[in-house]
């Protein structure tokens, strides 16, 4: 069992009947009334609420309250009830529903509040995670030591539909939501089951939640099927994050009506680059090829490198159903077994895809470079191109390694240039985050047969560097036209918060890595040294993930700020318009300025940037959820054996361990650790055995075994391999 460490001993115990002087009592009464703004109390109620036990202090309460009222510090009613006179603050913010007992409200940026507001469950007014709410902030901090408040109004619900498992009894039914931050089951009348059967996965829509009711009432709007089946679980994730199940018919019809042929007049208006050797390099299973690279040697000995991007906005016009749907989706979503595309297949895999041996309309950055990878000149504009070859990453890498095969000389030279671009970028302060990605091999029913860690080779970095070069060049081209006054879509990444980095630094020390971070430190240099140190080590994945979390989040905006992580003064997304709506925005604005247009009002573009950033987060969260689901399923099917792992988190309730072999994280519950009673040392993030003095802390290498997996909650329960009680695995 676990308990929180308490070093006060017997002296720290409260002693009933402690006598307070008048000043102490007055402060306590004032603080209590301020934290119960809007309520009135008489002396008897105050004595009870403040748990005053000794007779002397009890007798002093009413006189002290009268003195406070006479001094104008509190108000007094004719009935001898007293209340706070302080004015509360009213703010709006977003709910972070932490657990069933309380939530935090993240105030909007305009209020400039450094601390989130704690709201107890009884004062939430049934607000749920992600909802926008209006909050009354109490004038003084509460007993928690934090700013507290009360929800007055739910301004906007984030969602009213939840995925869960239906439980049917003879008289009523409930849906138990999968979402960890939804802490209430949803009551469903028998007539609103939509044919769902006991234990099936469903989507339930909340229809009513009266203030006096503990649970909301809802109706089932979609029956997903039997829990645990691959298709059902993937659909559950899609429904949980509000992802579309199918593409609407109207935009599909618009796409189908677009002719295949490129009009001769359109070709005449573009730079014709069809004779320049061009190829695409993508994952082996990709179908939407939105970027290609061309190469030729110039007569002056320099190289012409073209980065050619699918000209999606030629086909997707404003105020069409295609445009509306692309904007709403804002990004393609890549789940573990499928792609949910931003554009219909006719465009994404057909008209816009830079398939080999087909003429295609493109938007291009064409660079003149020397052998040192210096850009001597560049041109930006619309082109028509023709891809001569489609490479998978592995195939192109093989041609470089073997110095043989199609375009091996061009690939080799491009690789040398990319390495120079990459080195220059890191020399200028870019951060080398090489995140670990896992990929599953699935059978025809979606069952995971194997798990592999994706390996990033030179060919991946080659494509990355030329895409970065094109994105940066476009951003700087627009910025330099009018010193950043022209409305444009930038991809920005703010300088990290020093406090967060110091927290990360302390965490890294637990793994034996001493990194010093202060105001004067060159952050990128320190982080790059750490990234180099941890390559191939068990802690690599967790430290990379935590380093990224300690950074500011990259986002889209019309503000011409820089990109800290890439060490670019200006940056945008230009290279993936088939799968990202912001790239379509960039193409439209870029052509507008190339045509001599004036800067449009930024407000509408900023709104689109905010929407795109929100959709990007939704996509990332759903992709992670689908990977986590497969990790849980994989571990439920994996061999029953002891696994080596590394402790990635220590809490009062348990120890989080990442299994080194599979990169899956699970929890060892303190309640299951029966070899001793463990105290939680919060300051040092460790557990200490009361009798054996065994210390369990971050970074420890441990052996664990799987004892339970829960696909609904996407959790893995572990136990330490040396635990006295051997448990049988449960699913």
The average pLDDT score comes to: 89
Number of strands: 34
Number of separate helices: 17
Residue share in helix: 25-40%
**First-residue to last-residue Cα separation:** 23 Å
What is the CA-atom radius of gyration, in angstroms? 30 Å
Could you say how many structural domains there are in total?
Answer: 5
Low-confidence stretches: 3-16, 725-730
Helix/sheet category = alpha+beta
Q: Order of strands across the widest beta sheet? A: 14-21-20-17-16-15-22
Sketch the major β-sheet.
7 strands, mixed
- Strand coverage percent: 25-35%
Q: Outline, from the CA principal axes?
A: globular
Keywords: Cytoplasm, Exonuclease, Hydrolase, Nuclease, RNA-binding
Organism: Cecembia calidifontis
Catalytic activity: Exonucleolytic cleavage in the 3'- to 5'-direction to yield nucleoside 5'-phosphates
Family: Belongs to the RNR ribonuclease family. RNase R subfamily.
3D structure, described in words:
Its EC number is 3.1.13.1. With 731 residues, this protein is α+β, with helices and mostly antiparallel strands. It has 5 domains: 63 residues, Winged helix-like DNA-binding domain superfamily/Winged helix DNA-binding domain (Arc Repressor Mutant, subunit A, Orthogonal Bundle); 68 residues, Nucleic acid-binding proteins (OB fold (Dihydrolipoamide Acetyltransferase, E2P)); 67 residues, OB fold (Dihydrolipoamide Acetyltransferase, E2P) (Beta Barrel), CATH 2.40.50; 259 residues, no CATH class; 86 residues, OB fold (Dihydrolipoamide Acetyltransferase, E2P), CATH 2.40.50. It is 30% helix and 27% strand. A 7-stranded mixed sheet has the order 14-21-20-17-16-15-22. Strand 28 and strand 29 form a beta hairpin. Helix 4 packs antiparallel against helix 17 and helix 13 runs antiparallel to helix 15. The N terminus and C terminus are likely disordered.
